[in-house]
Structure formats: structure tokens, C-alpha cells
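@channel anyone free to eyeball this complex?
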Amino acid sequence: MTSFEKFLGSGSIFKNVSVLSPHYIPKTLYYREKQIDDIMSYLAPSLKNQKARNILIYGKTGTGKTCSIKKIIGEFEKVQSKAKMHYLNCRIYNSKYRVLQKIMKDYWPELEKAGFGLPFIYEKLLETLRQGNYIIVVLDEIDMVKDLDDLVYTLTRANDEVATGGITIIGVSNKLSFKENLDPRSRSSLNEVEIVFPPYTSEQLQKILEQRVEEGFQPDVVRQSAINLAAAITAQESGDARYALKLLMRAGEIAEERKKNGVEDVDVEEARKRVEVDLIAETVNTLPEMHKITLYAIAKLSLNGSRYYARLDGVNDGFLMSGEVYEEYGICCRQLRKKPRSLRWYREYLNDLEMLGLVLTAPSSKGIRGQTTLIKLGHEPDAVYKITSDVLFGGSG
DNA sequence: CCTCCACAGGAAGCGCAGGAGT
DNA sequence: ACTCCTGCGCTTCCTGTGGAGG
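replying in thread with the prediction:
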């Protein structure tokens, strides 16, 4: 036995850990046959050189949206045609410019370098369509695009400008409300078809977990009751399949650490704490630096308690006030030898953090000190504080 | 009632990086 | 090498809002 064996998941618990990763696409996706079928039927025209209708897909995180789309893209590529699907995550491609550039790169390699003007890229888009190409853009996390109205307008106008070819938008969002702050015109063109991914029920999660357990774990190591518990916990909290899978994976790790030969209910219970930290850390790590500092400041104040609210008799729901958070943010920046950004941009950071669910905000109605925004962490302050301080101060102490 | 406070968020514009055209 | 252009992150300035306090 080589010394690496034990790190490679060939121990007594796991068979193949990657099966439990959220990026893994199983051969059969349970309980999504209807959605996948619908989407494919709407896309079919583009394989016969017709423009397909735009689609909006809704569903909370971990309801199989991205997984289903990836599956469809795989099927789509098996068919020979002048149509191509492009998958973009809008957390990275978050502006009209970036989205257009990313799509056009696949057709025009010279666009690899940055610095081209938007009109230039738009011309390339028209040229691509005139060549008879059918472009299907999947915009995952579409609500992250800053100038979405503009993007939708540009794409639909491109359709009108050419006689051949066509471009179809598939928007994927986890918030139903995001449509509300869209321009009515782009809303109606984007919303030609709507498909909803409901959260998984406890029974459905159970089945999904059983499938992954079979592929990812050694035979008979995970107790049925542990699977049921993981499914029940998840269904109660969110119905997020990603959460359920993480729960099971962490439980497996805990069992392995303790040199047990099976995964039991207690391991799942224990895993719960670690999974929350995992999920927060995942989002925090992808955050730009100033966002991290803002979040760190909020976590720090949450632990110490609000200076203003502390003086008040009555309720302290752990809410902070925007002003004091900005002050703390400034202090944190100086600690890190960084220049604090203006109040205006601090507000943008707050909005972004709220969109990611890391922070909850509410307008102060009947409070003190007039009008302010109340801020609260979306998760356990201790966990967020630890994660942010590790990522900000971790390297050099 | 008016004014002030503590904000929200739009608009304009600035400096920079990294093209293209000359 | 140079000018011109664009997107981006950002600052500065501005108008608006609703409760607090006189």
C-alpha cells in the first residue's frame, strides 16, 4: 500500500468523492425529466435552423438548474447543426460587454485580447449571425448582470437586424423577484417561456442521495437512517441538493477521521456545523477584496454588538446601522493598509453582499437617529468572522 | 410647520489599462 | 511613438426621503 492511498478516497468509506461534488453530473437526473424535456422541446427549432424562443428558468439554489442545463448542453452537442449553446456564469461575466466578448471569442479567436470597442464586437456578432449561426446563450445567475436591460435589448436587436441566424437567451435565476426591476420591454422579450424548478422534497432528496451514495461510497457503509436524516434536515432547511450532498460528504469525512467503518446519524448531525461554514467560505472566497473587508467589518461589529443599539432599552435583534458599519469598514481598511472607498461605493458593496445572501438589510422605520439602513449578517457571526479574518489576515498573521 | 439628520441612489466625470489606426 | 477610443472601478456632486426635534 502506497502512502498516498489514504488521501485518495480509497479508504474504507469513500469510493469516489467527486461524485458528491456539486459539479458532478449524474447519468440520470431524478425529478427533472419534465423540465429538461420542456427546455429541449423549446430549443429544438434551433437545430432545424429556426430561432428558438427565449426562456427564463427559476429555482432556488440546489434545485438542479445548472445541472439540467449542463445535461442539455451535452445532448445538444451530439446533434450536428449550425447551432451552439454557450454557458456563462454571470457572476464572472457580469456586464453586457463581458458577455458579448465571451460569446464572440468562440467564433473569433482574435477577440481573446481585451480592449475592443463594443460596436466592433457587435459587428462581429452580426457577422456571425449572417453566416447562418444559431447562438443560444445560457446566462446563469442572470440577476448579477449590471446592465441587463441593455444586454437584452442589444441581443434582441441583433436578431431583428439579420435575416439569417438567430440568438436565443436562456436566463437562469434563483430569485423570482429579479424581473421586477427590469425594463418592461426587455422583460417581455426575455420571458417568452418560463420554467420553474421547485425545491426537492424530503423523499426526492432521499432518492437522489441514495443514487450518489451508491456511486460515491463503498458498498454498505452509509446507514439508511443517515441518508434519511440528511434528506430530512435539508428539506426542512432549504431543499438545496448541494447542501444535502455536502452534508453527506462531510459526514463521511468525520466517520473516516474517527476510524469508523460506517456513516451514522451522529456523523450527519456533526457535519451540519461544518457544512454551513463551507458554504459561506465558498462565496466569501470569490468576493473582491473590498467586499470581503465590508463583510469582515459587519461580522466584527456583530460580535461586539452595536454601539448605538447597545445604549437603547428594548430590542436589539443584532441589527447594525449603516453608518457605524462604514466607520468600522474604514478602520479595517487602515488596519490592512488599504485606502477606504467612498461611502457611495460602500453602499454598492452592501447591495452586492445582500444579493449574495451574506447580509440582510432593512430600512429603519421607527428607530433612533432618523433614517438609516439596518444591517444583519445572513449567517452565524462567529463563522463569518472566522472566515473573513482568515482570508484577509490569514497569510501574514 | 420647518429644518436637520442620515441616509439612498442617479448622473457626470476621472484616471487607468489596453486595444486600433496612423 | 502618438492619439483616440472603450470599459471599469471609482469619486464627487446632487436630489430625494422619512422620521426626529424644535
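from a first look: Chain A is about 50% helix and 10% strand.
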